[in-house]
Specification:
By secondary structure, the chain is of the alpha/beta class. It contains eleven helices and eight strands. It has an eight-stranded parallel β-barrel, surrounded by six helices. The longest helix is centred in the last third of the chain and has 21 residues. It binds flavin-adenine dinucleotide. The site of flavin-adenine dinucleotide has 24 residues, from β3, α5 and α6. The site of flavin-adenine dinucleotide (FAD) has 24 residues, from β3, α5 and α6.
Length: 294
């Protein structure tokens, strides 16, 4: 199914992200995650592509996306980056995706390697999106966006101008980088609407439930920390049970507010954690039912 049709038929779509683990022997983790998620009311599941990883991890993306569709009957959204690949390699991956029946692709540039310049089929995600669309009309192409601006962009306004190019290249819906301050997202939405970007935008939400996540994810992604979230971290970061509970409540609050405000989608960064994904879904399921009632 073309995911853009989901956005046409539902007011608010609920999706999740899983990732192939970096260690080749750890791939079972993602299969266990998918097994653990079965039965939840998830509209689609996205699978990351080589984020900080290896070629074998990239191959797993197609395999996992295919399994999500065949085994669990859920629509997959397969991420695809152009950093580190030639046009021929990308065309080959597209063939594998089509053969596996995977129709939806999140077109990304990917992060530039720290070691310096590398093979790069296209300079920007918008070029990759256009290439995919020209290769085969079978595919539906989605993209990423950044409520606080991408780190490489001169400013948020400049980033939004570039985002418009991505949408003009045929991207049918967008997912945001994670954020902790809903006000940041609402200000971003005002700006993108003014810029004439009118495709559905799903809010990317990551539950922070462990101290290691604060150190790694929160400091790496550069998302601003609202006072309420800062208080939670400072009070509970040394107490694992309290942090788990407070982090979960914060996520549920964030989603409750976003859904009430008419967000078009919530995309949960699960970090392959079934327990957390199930807890968030159970707590927020009725919100989605309520807004999607005809
Ligand atoms: P782009 O849209 O190309 O933007 C990158 C920079 O170029 C920005 O500063 C932008 O303003 C500028 N730019 C864009 N288009 C133009 C243009 N036409 N002209 C001039 N400048 C332009 N990484 C992975 O490796 N694997 C994943 O699976 C993955 N999944 C992700 C999922 C989501 C929802 C998000 C938000 C990010 C994900 N990332 C992933 C990280 C992403 O690859 C990095 O943030 C990367 O640095 C930028 O990718 P992009 O597709 O947003 O790039």
């Amino acid at each position: 199914m073309n995911i853009s049709n989901l956005y046409k038929s539902k007011k608010t779509v609920y999706s999740m992200e899983v990732f192939p683990p970096k260690k080749s022997g750890a791939v079972e983790t993602v299969y266990n995650t998918l097994y653990g998620l079965r039965g939840l009311p998830i509209d689609y599941i996205s699978v990351t592509y080589g984020a900080g990883g290896t070629d074998s991890q990239k191959d797993k993306t197609v395999e996992i996306a295919s399994l999500i569709k065949s085994e669990y009957g859920i629509e997959p959204l397969s991420h695809l980056t152009c950093v580190g690949s030639t046009k021929e390699q990308i065309a080959e991956t597209l063939t594998h995706l089509k053969n596996a029946g995977v129709q939806n692709i999140l077109a990304l540039r990917g992060d530039m390697p720290a070691e310096g310049p590398c093979e790069m089929a296209f300079p920007h995600a918008s070029d990759l999106a256009q290439f995919i669309r020209e290769q085969d009309s079978f595919f539906n192409v989605a993209g990423a966006c950044y409520p606080e601006g991408h780190v490489d962009a001169e400013s948020l306004d400049a980033d939004i101008e570039n985002l418009k190019k991505k949408v003009d290249a045929g991207v049918t819906h967008l997912t945001t980088q994670l954020f902790f301050d809903n006000e940041v997202f609402y200000r971003f939405m005002e700006k993108v609407e003014k810029a004439g970007i009118n495709v559905p935008i799903a809010a990317g939400i990551m539950p922070i439930i462990k101290k290691t996540q604060i150190e790694r994810t929160v400091s790496m992604c550069g998302a601003s920390i609202p006072a309420k979230f800062a208080r939670l971290i400072s009070r509970y970061s040394e107490s694992p049970e309290a942090l788990y509970s407070a982090g979960l409540s914060y996520t549920i609050d964030q989603i409750t507010d976003l859904v009430a405000s008419g967000v078009r989608g919530i995309h949960l960064y699960t970090m392959n954690n079934v327990e957390v994904a199930r807890a968030v879904t159970t707590a927020t399921e009725s919100l989605f039912e309520s807004v999607n009632k005809i």
